[in-house]
Specification:
single chain, globular, 4-stranded antiparallel sheet, alpha/beta, 12 strands, 6-stranded mixed sheet
Amino acid sequence: MRIAARGLVVRFGERAALAGLDCDLVSGELVGLIGPNGAGKTTLLRVLAGLQRTDSGEARYDGRSAGELGRAALARRVAYLAQSGLSHWPLSVDHVVALGRLPHRRPFSPPSAADRAAVEAALAAAEVVELRDRPIGSLSGGERARALLARALAVEAEMLLADEPVAALDPLHQLRAMALLRAAARKGAGVVAVLHDLTLATRFCDRLIVLAEGRVVADGPPSALTDAVLAETYGVTALRGERDGEAFVVPWRAAGPNLRD
């Protein structure tokens, strides 16, 4: 699947959350969508998921608009994991994960064998099998984040848009979640993840798209996150290194001679 976004403009009052943004996304790669707070990352994901109207510009899916594709088909092909991780359903975890199969089912129809298999695979992948019978409202923030990731995985979409999927997780589960997203990309899905942890982004992602003020300021492999880009967008300097053949970046200090401590 290829998503091509051209000229995206989204305004909230006088503020432009997206200011003429262009980007291309394809199946088979893990893309880290990074940038400072207020850069437009969440707004971009919501536009790509068909949840946010634009003031101008549009996203096309294999050459078709969201309207041409239809809401049902778009929901099957593009899965969206929201940032908040909130859930107000009085449901068990396995029932919440099964909601990811709704785009594949006819109204009021029972789950098929394929639906049940997808739910079981998603529970296992997100490491929440042991939580399956727990009410989702009883979970910790990290457990709930993993359960909602499982729901998104259960869609088995061609493109997964995940807004801060590791924000509530402990370090071990952050690593496992990033490895899971990378594995999904290796199996052919497209994955776009909003990330604030630059170390995880540079380690796991095939490509980084850096946003600032609603525009793309860098787009390329992790090496595109240069010192100049870091200083311009985040106002920081970084330490760089390599371990086991993987490069990493660690934000270190505020940029500028008078902001070192």
